[in-house]
Amino acid sequence: MTSLFPLLPVFLDLTGRAVVLLSAEAGLAPLARRFLDAGAGVTAIDPSPS
Questions:
Q1: Where are the domains of the chain?
Q2: How many angstroms separate the CA atoms of 13 and 15, rounded?
Q3: CB under 8 Å to 36, separation ≥6 — which residues?
């Protein structure tokens, strides 16, 4: 999924939008940062917590 986000327009405005990532993998941190930079609120849910 992280490879899909760079294909989105750089002018994407997610201000006030909620984004939920269904994983808490450290590898998704750059993706979460991109959503935050676009103005979204980000929640990461780990579907199988340890």
A1: 5-44
A2: 6
A3: 42
